[in-house]
Amino acid sequence: MISGRLDAIWRYPVKSLLGERLGGSELGPAGVEGDRSYALIDVETGKVASAKRPQLWRRLLEIGAETAPDGEVRVRFPGGEPQLLGGAEIDQLFSEFLGRRVRLSALRRNGESLDRSVPEEVLASGEGAAVEMTDLPIAQAAPDGGFFDYAPIHVLTRASLDRIRAACGDDTVVAERYRPNLVMDCPGAPPFAENGWTGGEIRIGAATLKVVCPTPRCSVPMLAQGALGKAPGALTAVLDLNRIELPDFGPGLYPCLGAFAALATPGRVAAGDPVTIVI
Fold first, then answer.
1. In the chain, how many H helices and how many E strands?
2. Fewest C-beta atoms under 10 Å: which of 84, 121, 124, 258?
3. Check: CATH 2.40.33.20 for 2-35+108-278?
4. d(CA 193, CA 35)
């Protein structure tokens, strides 16, 4: 049993856009309320637009998404005013900014997928290069709703994040580069403890989560995003320090940081809530 506290809650209303830090949130079957509720769809290919293919979509990480008190989601392009996500011209605004035709979707269809660049090749060839990709079916361990990579909740410990930051010597290697939902400060957990949590429970406030598996990393953490510049070490340190087998994802060793989880018991959580991990 490991104890700690909930350090931060993050929500990303639109997949691959910048997120927002919350003081508290309901956790339901689709994870943090309002998380990854929307995505942009590439009109040409029909695939979800994701910065996992930085050659085409790295500029998604320049756009902010925020939820107003009335629940409406607004997006902010660099240097611009907030735009209502449901506005009549939003598809055109996104398409012009990205240089490629996209449409906004709030409905995840069965079989939805995205292109995922091989992260080692992005490191070697650069984010603008055409590199090898895999077709990644999304939300395979998630309920209906939400454009999740795999499961609806991504957890990360401070110990794991601090170990990566120390290894690469870059103070800009912060939690939001890895896009977790729940960041936990668990003093008794060593770096990369999440590797061994599969099948265990995480109790936070009134909610209980079931850990699904460690989280394999893509090239996104190394990319410039918002006010954060490029940080190759955010990926290379994970490649050097924590490559493990993930049989459900195929043969080989995967760079991992954090863990995926699914909801067992719904409830509200808030920053500062006690955390208990039972393995």
1. 5, 19
2. 124
3. yes
4. 25
Q: pLDDT averaged over the chain?
A: 96
Amino acid in the structure at residue 128: G
DSSP label of 251: S
pLDDT tens column, 152-184? 999 999 999 999 999 999 999 999 999 999 999
Q: Report the distance separating Cα 93 and Cα 168, nearest Å.
A: 37
| Phi, psi for 255 (deg, rounded to 5) | -70, 125
- Any alpha helices (H) in 152-247, and if so which ranges? 158-168, 233-241
Residue pointed to by tokens 């940080």: 231
Nearest in space to 108 (alpha carbons), one of 14, 235, 206, 207? 14
Q: By 3-state DSSP, what share of the chain in percent is helix, strand and coil, each rounded to 5?
A: 20, 35, 40
Kindly tell me the sign of the dihedral angle through the C-alpha atoms of 215, 37, 145, 202.
positive
pTM higher than 0.90: yes
